[in-house]
Design brief:
The protein is mainly alpha-helical and about 250 residues long. The chain has one domain. About 60% of the residues lie in helices and about 0% in strands. The chain contains eleven helices and no strands. The model has no long low-confidence stretch (mean pLDDT about 95).
Length: about 250
């Protein structure tokens, strides 16, 4: 299982590498590769698949291979396996903005840091996913999958490939998740009067593929598209319209 200390290690090392290459200078193509992988990990893997698909079952993939690939990308994003991610997210919805919320700003600095997945994986909340052998395998063998991923990158492109195709975009995904969890419960506007303090943050929505329309999501969590006003940009929602099986978008 990919544990909390693994998440912290990936985030710290990836952040340090990003700072190092920003100071020493790296070819623009490497940074483009990092951004592309950030999109793959954060948008395709986490936002679209772990959150809207696995957690809320808000649509069905048009193609099975795409579902499997995106679940793998979510696993490689560095914020926990699909099964663990969904379990923690369900706790967030169940206990939003209380002391039991795994990433509430009410918990002080702990609310900004990586949730302690080791303690938060309530398997009773994810019994449906545990029946999926692929999801279960990636949960139990996540560290091995990561090791193979880094090894392949190193063989193909050396240390820089590991940094720009792996650790840097993984760290960006993890950091943006923490920033998202913090700001969308402390800043922004509320369209709906929900039972917690969820908020919409327009500028954060642009760099988190629509995730920061958080008040919209908490008001109607089963909806695949978080955009509730014409001017709210939801990149993940637009993507889902392209990849979802016809008639399955909630």
């Amino acid at each position: 299982m990919f544990k909390t200390n693994h998440i912290i290690a990936v985030t710290v090392i990836g952040t340090c590498l990003g700072i190092y290459y920003a100071i020493t200078g790296a070819d623009l193509l490497w940074w483009c590769a990092a951004f592309g992988m950030y999109f793959a990990f954060s948008c395709l893997g986490i936002t679209t698949t772990f959150h809207r698909y696995l957690s809320h079952n808000s649509f069905k993939f048009r193609y099975r291979w795409m579902e499997r690939l995106f679940i793998l990308l979510g696993t490689l994003a560095g914020t926990g396996s699909g099964l663990a991610w969904v379990a923690v997210h369900k706790e967030h919805h169940r206990h939003s903005d209380t002391e039991h919320d795994p990433h509430s700003p009410l918990n002080g600095i702990k609310g900004f840091l990586v949730p302690h997945y080791d303690d938060r994986v309530n398997y009773r909340r994810v019994r449906r996913l545990m029946k999926d052998r692929y999801v279960w395998f990636l949960h139990k063998r996540a560290t091995t999958v990561f090791a193979v991923f880094y090894l392949v990158l190193f063989i193909l492109g050396g240390v820089q490939a590991v940094a720009f195709f792996g650790l840097i975009p993984q760290a960006a995904t993890s950091l943006m998740s923490s920033i998202l969890n913090w700001f969308t419960h402390t800043h922004g506007y509320r369209t709906y009067e929900t039972n917690e303090n969820s908020r919409n943050v327009w500028w954060l929505a642009l760099i988190t593929w629509g995730e920061a329309w958080h008040n919209n999501h908490h008001a109607k969590p089963s909806r695949a598209v978080f955009k509730h006003k014409w001017w709210e940009i939801d990149i993940s929602g637009a993507l889902i319209a392209l990849i979802a099986k016809q008639g399955t978008i909630k």
